Amino acid sequence: MATASLCTASRALGIALGVALAGLALRILCAWILIPAWESQVGVAATPDAYPALAASLIARGELGYGAGPTTVRGPAFPVWLALGLGLAGSGISWLGFWGSLPGLVVGSILSWVAARRHGALAGLVTGAVAMLHPLPLIAGARVMGDDFYAALGAAAILAGCFAIAGDDRVPRYGWMMLAAGLFSAQILTRATGILSLVAFASVGLRAGRRVRLALAAVVAVALIAPVFWSLRSSRLEDRPVFVHSLLYYNFWIGEELDRRGSGPAPAGHWGVAVRETFERAGWPADQARRLQYVDLTPRETARLETNLARAARARIQDDPIGFAARLLRGLGAFWFRAATTARTWQYVLVVLPLLALAVVGLPRSATDRGLGQVFAWTLGLHMVAYAAVLPAARLSVQVYPALAFLAGVGAVASRNNLDGRRRTRATPMAR
Predict the structure, then answer these.
(1) Could you point out which of 98, 154, 241, 373 has its C-alpha 20 to 30 Å from the C-alpha of 422?
(2) Cα dihedral angle (68, 69, 70, 73), rounded to 10 degrees?
């Protein structure tokens, strides 16, 4: 049941704008000062996923690629967004980090407003703080990683989709439906795992009426059009079936190596060793594997890499299903906490564990929230399990932080109400 009466529209707007201004200041600080200083101090490269190079290739050649030819290891949506930023204010890394994080700021503000209107001021404040002020999304954005961009698209798509099927005659249903479809499509074209958000959204209509089911079917159908065409492009380049982009099994074996070795010393832990051993497992000679990165691969080389690693992954699971199940269970926690280094991992435990506790408390209350809380819960759960099975890392959990933020906001209200109820229960005998 909606609880809009708990917070007026103007007060909810004030909460959202206040947290957004703080988020804007932190994004400027991170992009231009804190993250560049940290990267210089520890000796790690800026933009570890090399997205600015993809954006530059779109402008220079009209083609998504790291070098002279095309690539199939990334989707096009985030590079397209960065290309717009390049056209506006140039190729400075700090600027691109700030520009890339702006969708997260906008969507976090909207989500904060929605949470405040439906569940009260505390829910809006906590939701906005987690979505816009938490260090993990801030770091990912400033380093031009794309995970918070992906998260923003998914949350915006879910919001638009839930507005479309909310049952309010004042809502322009078809406009919201097409907006949701476009946002889901863009999220899938950022990372193929965006299909999980679409599945989570579609799940709310399984027991709904015919009209809602038809609306959901339309959103799903339209959302898949662009990803299907991009998948045809990637499949043609690799000469094998590919959904949006490659590197599923590459990431599986990176996850396998990191699970076996654990977090390591600064600055990058065991990441370099994991990459080298993954290339060796795929058949590259040791001297080449020591120098290779996925950005160096042609589409046919990517196909060779993935085919060989897929065969090895199937053998690994078949030979030791219990061991893989144990890795999956460990991955559920690693998805939220694991960093490259041991010290950073413990820091993430401290700043993430309280949010997970609040989200768990908020699950029952959010389940009555006209579908929105349910979709966020399914989105969070599906991503957590999928990444636990492949490559669990705290940096990747940023992709569901809007969902975590909303559930934590609802959980904060539920926790306060439970505490107030206990206090009243204790006070009643004294009053008598």
Answers:
(1) 373
(2) -80
Joined together, the tokens standing for residue 428 give 């009643």
Separation between Cα atoms, residue 393 and residue 247, nearest integer Å: 16
Question: Rounded to whole angstroms, how far apart are CA atoms 3 and 120?
Answer: 7
Q: How far apart are CA 140 and CA 239, in angstroms?
A: 33
On whether the CB atoms of residues 374 and 80 are closer than 8 A, the answer is no
How many other CB atoms are there within 10 angstroms of residue 398's CB atom? 25
What is the distance of C-alpha 49 from the center of its chain? Answer: 15
Burial annotation 326-359 (CB, 10 A radius, 16+ → b, else e): ebeeebeebbbbbbbbeebbeebbeebeebbebb
Question: Model confidence over 22-32: pLDDT tens digits?
Answer: 999 999 999 99
**Model confidence over 304-336: pLDDT tens digits?**
999 999 999 999 999 999 999 999 999 999 999
Task: Give the number of other Cβ atoms within 10 Å of residue 211's Cβ.
Answer: 12
Could you give the CA distance from residue 322 to residue 342 in angstroms, rounded to a whole number? 26
> How many whole angstroms separate alpha carbon 256 and alpha carbon 140?
23
DSSP state of 32: I
The DSSP symbol for 294 reads G
Question: Averaged over 270-289, what is the pLDDT?
Answer: 92
pTM, full prediction:
0.94
